[in-house]
Amino acid sequence: MQSTRGKIVFIGLAIALLFGWYVLKGVLWPYNPHQEAVAMVMGGMATTASPVNGYWHANGAEDPEAAKAAEVAKKDAEAKKELEAKKDAGPKKDVDPKKEPDPKKQPEIKAPPELKKDDDPTLIAMGHGEKPYYLQLMLNTRGGCIQQVIVSHFYAADREGLEVMEEFDGGKRPVPLYLVPGMRPAWFKLTDESFAALSALKLPGSVLAKLKPLKDREFESREGLRNAVAETIGDDELKLFQAPIMGHAVRRERRESVRGASNVPRFKLEKGAVKDPVLKRALSESGGSYVMYHYDKPGDDRPLTDLHERNWKVVEQSVDPDSDEQKVVFQTTLDEPHNLQITKTFTLKRKEYHVGLAIDIKRIEGKKGPNQFRYQLSGAHGLPIEGEWYTSTYRQAIVGFAEDRGNGQKGGNASRFIEDARTIRKEEGTDRQTRTDKLAIRYAAVTVQYFASAIVVDDQQDKRNFLEFVRATPVGDTHKEKEFLDDLTVRAITETFNPEQDVSHKYMLYNGPIKVRLLRQLPADHAVDDALVDRYLYNLNLDTMTDAPMNNFLGRFANAIYWSDLVIAFTNLIHSLLYLLSQAIPSLAICIIFVTVIVRGMLFPLSRRQTHKMQVMQAKMAKLQPELKKIEEKFKGDAQRVHQEKFRYMREHGVNPLASMGGCLMLLLQMPIMMGLYYALQESVFFRLDHFLWIPNLAAPDMLVFWSELIPFISSPDYLGSPVYLGPYFNVLPIAAVTLMLIQQMKTMPKSDDPQVQQQQKMMKFMMILMAVFFYKVAAGLCIYFIMSTIWGLFERKFLPKTAPEAGTAEALALKDETPEEPKPQGWLGRRKARWREKWHELLDQAQKQAEHRRAEQQPPPNRDGGGTGGGKKKKKKKR
């Protein structure tokens, strides 16, 4: 009874901890509303830096935008404080507060500073055309950077995990994947705070009254809000008041609801000069990717943003869509005190998943400057999270290391550092991941579940170990209590070098599947050269983005015992097997079924033998059960003695109590295969958006019925990330899989009259039901595997022979009241096993004798009068 009560208390505490953690984390790490305030002011983006004693925290030292945003926030706070002071002071003496303002003399409203016309950025398209390259780029002269990256032959999935479609020629077609969207997704609305700010700026009451119907309406873009404002107040008043109205609209990067494909960050940028002030502002707010910053002095913690904010000169542009290679060259100069000329050369080939980037730095002829210089190259940001309600892999930063073996040689002894967005936001950036004497930095990547965008050091150059360290930092707004949705980027900082001699650093900007090996399996019209894939995998060590142990204790331990290598080998084997099957079978779901049959067929001899042993074991235990009950009655109240006597009795009658460990051994043998299959289905880009029956995406839950986002705790978006959040869909496959597992468990568990065994069986059933909650959002492809594997196990057990063991066998003898003779060991391995068994039995006997000896010592000595056990000496009577 006490054991049952303890287990119930344990389960209750476990459930309380799951619910309590969701509340407790909000207390331990409270949300900072300052970030939302900064995000609202002029539609700017939030900063993650925090002032400490008047200085900016060193953790954000490599983020050049943080200091700038902080200064803006500080000025806005001062302006707001000054405005409040004026309001508190009351009207001036020479102003009549009751007098209405002259409508012909409207107060001057200062618009946010706009870019000059001659500073308009220009967008340059690379890889676009009727026959697009594998990568389509949009370059921006502002910052000389890449604004947008489209992966042509992979399609986009929205926040629900559904395929994104667009209208085309009277029908619909899938939208390509905007891996680097180019602009941050944003929703704009006018809130009470917006109207209060506009009222403080003394906008006419008639204009505010017209704007009231737009309050709290969400618009998918700033342009959509502007058009709605124009329809509401008219074009004439829009020209006069556009700047303050648009400037004080509240901007959010994410809607709470996940329903609707329009949530996908997708912006069709057009090449040419950007004249539209709204688009210009949006591009400025979003920032580009692969941006270069320089340090005023090599020892500075934070670089300057000058190279990012200026327009770079285009000195060469070769973007013929019919050519198989395109090239764009940007150039700019740094004046005093550096006097440097910097050239960035972007090259793109039709059938490659990387962009070549060469950064050349040289001293301006006839000029002098410091002999020390270094720069920072930031990575991509804004990679879309697909299926955010069910995925367990959000944005991550990965830094890869490997031994430097020279120009064009394979890197050896590779490793990686990986961190998720939540931790990066909480800690305001990662620690510096610094090169060592043996390990050079190979790449710095931002990844999502299926794709990666990485800064990779080109292996075809004389010096490859020029990156000193890499940090990952958060980007943009934070999500209250959902920091795992936050954006991030990586920042690669070079070593200090002497620019007196011309310096050239070459990079490869990889944008493609995170499982690089899968590029070999693309269809013929999208094929990638095998030599290039080998270069990605082994020379650049991009295989470590997936095929590497975790950088923690368990990962290091698994790597030390070669468990990681074993799982990686089976994962790649499953990938290859699925590819071979897909050449003959058009449906990947059917391929999963065939893989299940192949895997279980390979394991059939082991599983059959183990199942048969379990049946024999159950028969033996049924035969011994009456005697075991007598032992329980005889030593009732002494649990340790009951266990020891049962153990001894079973051994004397040929039943090894540890024989059930064979099931653990069977499970251990299957683990590399099962884990390999799990990882293969989790990282394969071919399963995403693949349809089967009612399932829209094999890499997502089956999503049978949409049951709304209104169910508290279960489907409400407010609880995304909590343990009980199941999402807005009813998924039938996880329920079917767990039900079959429960049936299999009931079939395999023997019936017992032992209350303790019965309690354990109830606990197993309860845990199976609890597992259904955690299993609920598993990908449909994995559910198909588990369902088929369980069905195989049920049929395997059903068709096993149920006849009694043949006469004369060890099993038959064991069922009698005889002790079976041990078969003579054969071979070296058999003799070793026999010796180990003997030693094990000796250890068990010694342990049992020691326990009996300790129990005898603990027994109280008998009474001197022979009256059994007593208290020893009799108490003396007190003398009167």
What does this structure look like?
Helix content is 39%, strand content 18%. A hairpin with a 5-residue loop joins strand 14 (325-334) and strand 15 (340-349). Helix 14 crosses helix 15 (639-652). It is globular, with a radius of gyration of 35 Å. Residues 22-60, 83-118, 811-822 and 864-880 have low confidence and may be disordered.
What attributes does this structure have?
880 residues, alpha+beta, 9-stranded antiparallel β-sheet, 5-stranded antiparallel β-sheet, 21 helices, 39% helix, disordered C terminus
What's a quick, concise take on this entry?
With 880 residues, the chain is an alpha+beta fold. It is built from 21 helices and 27 strands.
End-to-end gap: 50 Å
Low-confidence stretches: 22-60, 83-118, 811-822, 864-880
* Count of individual helical segments: 21
- Helix/strand/pairing category: alpha+beta
Within the largest sheet, what's the order of strands?
13-14-15-16-25-22-21-18-19
Give Rg in angstroms.
35 Å
User: Biggest sheet: strands, sense, closure?
Assistant: 9 strands, antiparallel
Q: What shape does the CA trace take?
A: globular
- Count of individual beta strands: 27
> Helix content range of the residues, please?
25-40%
Tell me what portion of residues adopts beta-strand conformation. Answer: 15-25%
Rounded mean pLDDT score:
76
